[in-house]
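Q: I have 323 residues here and want to know how they pack in 3D. Can you give me a structure?
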Amino acid sequence: MITPARRRILRRCGLVIAIILVLGLSGELILRYVFGFCDAVLMQADPDYEYIAQPNQNRFRFRNRIIYNSFSMRSEEVRPTAHKILLLGDSVVNGGHLTSHEQLASTLLSKRLSLLTGGDVQVLNISAGSWGPDNCAAYLRKHGTFDAEAIVLVVSSHDAQDVMTFSPIVGISTSCPDRQYKLACWELYDRYLKTNVRLFLQRVFSRKKTTGDISYRELHINEARSELNPGFSRIAQIARDKNIPFMIYLHAERSELQTGQYNSQGQQIIRFAEQYQIPICKNLELGLNDKWYLHDDFIHLSHFGQQKMADILFDMLRVEIHQ
């Protein structure tokens, strides 16, 4: 026989369990349908250029629309009759999950150049996080240049030595998933909270350092080398063979903004461009400031920064489009 006291305890336990279930379900639904958890951009390994986004994705992530076409470009599907420009690069060009499709420099450029010419211009965004010029060159060798009328390579100083290593990362790093999580709450913990929790506990209970999750950059950047990343010369050669205008956009890192000059690796890229008479745009000389960067980020562009990059590239490209 259940006593009144035990009945009250059971009722309270049931109420607590019900509240936990409601909160858990509410959290799961909010994470999924408000913030886009369990709808991450999925990646795939590639024998030629290490990794790339899986083709044909339309994602809603952190309230941003992220699309990839059948060639794994962060662009709409390639239109055969459009005038095409290739915009190559890493996460600066790609924008990641914090930049919606309509805010990308490539999207803004497509619209402005189409208005300028009165025709259909597509700026095709060929990029992935931590790609270097050699990744980009390998992509062009594998898929071709799509009848492009110009090629723009966006790089930062570290790309001078950012060479492919083919270290496995797809499906290993949480930043490079190849399948969706089953639960949004688990994705929140596994991708964004686990490392910080471990670091906190490590600082509290141990003096040992915790390495945390494997990042793109930890696996992708090789030891510093004296020679320039071979992708620069490979893309230049592809452009020469196809008679396509080729130009470089050198995006300064925040540390270079603070010192007012490109570091030794950036200077190496500048010397390469000057030696081979490749037009190079140095945004450090074009009003670069803190508003161009995401908050507390050393390199990635804010929405304002994407707009400014589009403005600069528009001035560079409109001459080529009109020729």
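Q: Anything worth noting?
A: Strands lie at 43-46, 50-53, 57-61, 64-68, 83-89, 121-127, 148-155, 246-250, 280-282. Residues 163 and 222 are 6 Å apart (CA to CA).
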